[in-house]
Amino acid sequence: MRRAPTVAADCVGQRAQRGVTLIELVVTIVVGSIVVAFMAMFIVTPMQAYTSQTRRAELVDEADGALRLMGRDLRAALPNSVRITASGTVRALELLATADGARYRDGGPLSNPALELDFTAADGAFATTVPFTQLTLPWSSSSAYLAIYNVGVPGANAYEMTNVITPAGTTISIAAGSAANEHLVTLSPAFRFAYGSPGRRVYLVSGPVSYLCDTGAGTLRRYSGYPITSAQPASAAALAAAGASSALVANDVGACQFSYNPGTAQRNALATITLQLLRSGESIQLLNEVQLANTP
After folding, report:
1. What pTM value is reported for the model?
2. Is residue 16 included in any domain, yes or no?
3. What is the DSSP letter of 253?
4. 243's torsion region: left (phi>0), alpha (psi -120 to 50) or beta?
5. Tally of domains in the chain
6. Which of 39, 44, 90, 195 matches a 20 to 30 Å C-alpha distance to 111?
């Protein structure tokens, strides 16, 4: 005999079949949104901090690399050859890069007085008492220069291309000598250096190097491979016209400053470089001070 369903069983079946109400759905969404928001605060903020720190580290690394490159060039510069100028948004620093150095003989041995460097007339050959150390001998070039006693004043300024530095196109040849530490240097054509160095120093100059910091373009570039001129080039156009080759040193440059204190015979010169880089809302600024021994 079939039993009729009771009222209690009907109520249970109705409750089991009832769906989620709109209010319950809205409450669930709100609560879920709050939970997600709190999770985002704990996840996104550290990620943003990590990204910002990574950008700052990249900027510091780029600026440090640029300052180190400039520092190496400055320390290898011919004494008293650093000069600085500005034109509009461009800050320019120029120097004469040396490839090597030695000490010349100012008193030839009795067996060969011709090895002495003569300052009273044009001399096409002399010997060293302290050798060049960065060259593979025999060595020869018509694009390099020899400089003696550049003090950076009129009459003894290498940028004037007289008295203290060989003319452009002079063929310089260096070979091993017969004595220890002796190198034989020949110049074609012969050249008369106007002044002797108290330390008998002679420098092999590879040529000028310029750094242009253009805050308008946001770049720092290095230029080389152009001739020495009395007037300092202060624009990319002037250097390009002189045949200079260019290399990008840093991007996103917001500001830069170059300063130079030439020092004295008793105190080293000091070059100060400040470089600021800006990228994606991040900003860093580094300063580098480079001491230069300017005793010619």
Report:
1. 0.81
2. no
3. E
4. left
5. 1
6. 195
